[in-house]
Input
Amino acid sequence: VHQAKEEFDRALKLYHRLLPIRERLDGDSLEVADTLHNMAFVYQKQGYHSESLRLYKRSRCIRECQCGKDSLQVASSLENMAIVYQEMGVLDRALKLYTR
Output
């Protein structure tokens, strides 16, 4: 809800509380990957590209292990990472991810 209302600081605060709980209960599950992905999106919206990429990459790794490299979940992570690189002006990296 906070993310949808663009209350990014509040959203991040909740995600930072949620993530260790999910990690403790679920390990490297899809729920953990989704939380990481959502956090990355919020950081992206705030312009924190390095942190966003770090979280998208971690989410992608979990999704690849859980769902396979050709899954829709992995494609979503790759697309969002490409958008971040595009926002940063690193177009060659973005293009590689778009065409993977």
